[in-house]
Structure formats: C-alpha cells, structure tokens
Amino acid sequence: MTSPQSPFPPVRRVVTGHTSEGKSTVLADTALPQRFWTPQSIAPVYDIHYTGEAPAVIDTEISKGKWVDEIVHHPELTSAGGSTFRCWDFAPGQISPAHRTTTLDYAIVFRGTVILELDDGERVTLKEGDTVIQRGTMHTWRNESTEWAKVYFVMLGAKTIEVGGKALGEESHAAR
User: Fold this and answer.
1) 117: closest CA among 93, 99, 90, 92?
2) Is residue 131 part of a domain?
3) pTM assigned to the model
C-alpha cells in the first residue's frame, strides 16, 4: 500500500535582483524541489529562502541561473542571525515533534486547518487565512483533519528567552 502524497503543486519561487547596470531583473523562476524531514515522511517541506544575517545582504552580485547560499536550501532548521522562509504541507493526521526555536516566527495558514498546541496544553485551531506570531514557545503543529494543510513560515533569528533566570533555548521532543 502506498502513502498518499500532497495534493498541492510544488511551491514556485521567483527571485529578483539587479543587472550589472542596476536595472531590476528576475534572477530565477522555478518550482522548488520537495524535501522531507524523514525518509518515511509523506509531507513535503519547501525551503524558499535563507539569509545568514540581519540586515540581509541583498546586493550580492549574482547572475541569472547562478545560485548563492542565501537562495538555496540551508541545512539548519533556522538562521540564528538571519531569516528562513519555509512552507510545510501537513498530511492528514500529521503531528510535528514538540519544539522551540530561538526565533520570531510569522505563520500563515494558506490551506486547510491546523492546531497549534502549546506545552501547557492550550490548543488553538487555525483555518485558512489565520496568522500566528510564534515567540520562541514550545509548541506542536497538528493536522487532525482528513484534508491536507499548507502553512507558510517566516522565521527571524531572535535573542534567547530568559524566564526566572533560566535560558529557554532550542529543543525538540517526540510528538505526544
């Protein structure tokens, strides 16, 4: 028996830049390859963009068809000093591991319904068009519906949170 695959088309990414004369141009217009967090996963993740620092360096000389580190997939989950733009397709029944990143995250539910569950047990159901400002809290994403969901994330590097003198750094635990 084969696992169902995401019904969504691949994420299309258009990257703009400048010619050597300073004119605006499209540097890349491509459908991104799917990647998976684990070999058994059926839910694709798309790494759309990554910067290693903020403010981002955007005047790097690049030409059409030539990739630079800021545009291609970066192996880290987040960029401690920069930004990450990512899209997740959540399969029906999928539950992410409980995790915290040292980032300020902006999430937009593009399709479907997902549940944001915090470590105190609070659950928020999010539907198409809903947004989340995730501020370094321990959380899990759940798709408890029978339909696929698609969520876009922009993650900005942030300072480590301290509560009661204890640093709350990045961590991840198996889904519960």
Assistant:
1) 99
2) yes
3) 0.85
